[in-house]
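Today's session is about reading a structure prediction critically. Students often jump straight to the picture, but the first step is always the sequence itself: look for stretches that repeat, for charged clusters, for runs of hydrophobic residues. Only then move on to the predicted structure, which in these notes is written as discrete structure tokens rather than atom positions. Here is the chain we will use throughout the hour.
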Amino acid sequence: MSRKVAFKTLGCRLNQFETDSIVTDFDNAGYEIVGFNEEADVYVVNTCTVTNQSDKKSRYTINQAVKTGNNHAVVVVTGCMVSNQRDYLESRGDITYVIDNQQKSQLFQWVDSHFKGEVVAPSSSEPNLFNFSLVEKGFHTRSFIKIQDGCDNFCTYCIVPAVRGRAISRPVGEILENIAKSLALGNKEMVLTGVNISRYDYNGLKFDDLVERILELPGDFRVRISSVEPEGFTEKLIGLFANPKLCPHLHLCLQSGSDKVLMRMRRFYTMEQFTHIIKQFRERYPRFNFTTDIIVGFPGETPEEFAESFLNVEQIGFSHIHTFKYSRRDGTRADRLPDQVNEKTKTQRSEAIRKLAEQMKLEYRKQFIGKQQTLLVERTDSRGGARGYSEHYLPILVKGARLERNNFYRVRIVDILDDKEQTLLAELA
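Below is the predicted structure for this chain, in token form.
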């Protein structure tokens, strides 16, 4: 009878990719992957610590694993919370292994050795931020490709450089080999991910050079760039989006539409520079999809600064906004700034941005009615329905067509459904 292992991932897409890789390790070794609320022999919690609220969620999830495991299961805690609160985690006494990001790729070996009766200390393995197995069985249909880790920006609200370390880029040969193997497994969408991927620099080969090399690989696939900072946007990179393999969508992190707030955040751009990037893209690709993050209620944010931010966001016209109420994070400079904004004001501003985001999402989707998109089917149902995303990262539903999962189809958008995602209804073109 095979042993059972359960996973819970908190935080960013990079964490999700790393969990998927570890899932593959366990699956290949014959372990049964089960739900986190089910009885298991192993519970793995991949934590986030970006805000104090993230710590609360991580602690709750760890407690859930300990309780469900009933003191008989192996409980493994990894991720960014380990780098920030190792002493607390190790002092609890109910966690079997506490493994930091530098050792995370070796997580399976420690657990498997545990069941074989071997003594393995986390410090015994050489740190390798990129030594993750190719994802063969994970929780997502896209293939995430880790190209970079760490960050050198040191925004005043962010603890990531402290828990992920300084920026480091993965060797280009490893990335291309990783993608080639993923394509051989039949994957059709490669998502480039990392902490600050626009800063990719391996022996002088920059981010735009890397993307160009990836697009030159043979095969029927497409490339999507995950969350990216508004820096390093060369003419070459912008031009690469003319290649049909490169998806016309970027999650371009703004954080605030006020220059004064951006300065207090220690962001390395102004609104003029940010909007110039948007303008360059839309002049060449009119329906290019931009999504973003906005933090409301940052320390010292006045009503005038929020109004300025609101107006600039509205003028840009994002198709989706992840809106965050500023959350204090111990160990950051922003936590020590004066004029902390009260929760009621944060909630009001968050709701205002949320309503604006819904309006902009609908306006963006309307321009695709009657237009064609390339759908990559991610899941199907027994009634012949097929769902997935287009190259512009638009959720699409095709009814009754009996399409096959993990295949591309040209479809024509015919309507917008009245659901939470404002899914586009389509038919085969």
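Discussion point for the tutorial: The chain has a mean pLDDT of 92.
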